[in-house]
Amino acid sequence: MPRPDFRTPRLFLESPLAAGATVALDRSQANYLGNVLRLGTNDEVLVFNGRDGEWRAAISGSRRADALAIQAQTRPQQAAADISYVFAPLKHARLDYMAQKAVEMGASRLMPVSTRHTQVSRVNTDRMRANVIEAAEQCGILTIAPVDEPVTLQGFLDQRNPDRLLVFCDEDADMADPIAALNRQTGAVKHGIDVLIGPEGGFAPEERDSLLRQPHLVRLSLGPRILRADTAAVAALALVQAALAEHVASEQSQPDNAN
Amino acid sequence: MPRPDFRTPRLFLESPLAAGATVALDRSQANYLGNVLRLGTNDEVLVFNGRDGEWRAAISGSRRADALAIQAQTRPQQAAADISYVFAPLKHARLDYMAQKAVEMGASRLMPVSTRHTQVSRVNTDRMRANVIEAAEQCGILTIAPVDEPVTLQGFLDQRNPDRLLVFCDEDADMADPIAALNRQTGAVKHGIDVLIGPEGGFAPEERDSLLRQPHLVRLSLGPRILRADTAAVAALALVQAALAEHVASEQSQPDNAN
Predict the structure, then answer these.
(1) ipTM > 0.95?
(2) Number of C-alpha atoms within 13 angstroms, CB side, residue A232?
């Protein structure tokens, strides 16, 4: 697999990408390349659209950064590991940060759920999608994780595929060996993984009861310290990636999860 | 061990803490309790000073939040696991965030090092200490991690205790099984652990050479994605805590590291 290039600027585009194609840039993209990065005609960038892999492109156009000439593919499209990040939304800047971090840590889908103790009632999913794209651009990720519209925790539990592994980050879980708890599940992840981080106020008792009745459940301890939700997201995804990444199915093998 | 209480506000104080003591609050502490948290006379808070454990205290004073009456100890002081977080500093807000996250993940000492590709030359260590205290207050941590003055990477390598385990988060490390790489070191952590996160531009070749010559070295892969430095800090500390926390020495057993 070619090693990602992280020094060349990367830009997400909606357009199909193929050798010889020319893609017009919208005003914000042109502004970013021309005025923020100070690039001009013939300078190189990397582009991706979430479907066609990563391509080298050169800035073209009579005025600066009008368009991109797509040149050669630098990395093929790869299926993302099927790891959904299920979370109680936070406010504003911390939600931006949490969405970026989840993508950075390899979450392939973001699923906000409201709980009894969730402090945020409305979620700006468009803003979350912009954060997903920004993180993918910065971190060399070639797929764009979809952001679901928020549902209640019970709604999520009712509609999820019960064959998927549910990793429930539970401050009351046994701390003894979180890695061993995950390692026992290597056979259970062929339908993908849902990693659930609760609200900072914790789950209500009846919510905990519903969660603990789920099949294929791992209660994961993140240690004796209480973590902020954005920190817990990174820590939990780091453990899941380290223990299970090589066993988890990729999204493409899960047509029921491709929307 | 008593379970930490995370609903009552927690405040770091410099004063000695003992049953029956009265501690005067400075203006910013009084403002925080009175105006930010809207607490008044007889309301309860938890306090700690990094030495005497955690205590329940009641707001006293004729005007609001003038002083605290220290009542009973809620948790004894505990030695922190001896895990130093060694890092190339970032700019401003991201450095604040990184310091908070490292403390939240249980780092017991913060050691900024400058490298060839470090983007930041001056580090405001007072501001980092304020972030350490804020994270400890929020996350129920009873020790205040010292923040060292910055040194060069070579200076750090020259002065460190070579018996300590060095966990080097290396994007070129073998990705196969980071947990197994850490688990092989359970016997080697009795002198503590240094977790090193490099600059986002990577280490220079001669820096890598120096690092790779260190004894008791683990090169840790954090996966195929390139992470921002603050994300890498949380991910690396999560893996180190999960794999090694029960084996690592506590700070108190390491007098050479107690300054």
Answers:
(1) no
(2) 28
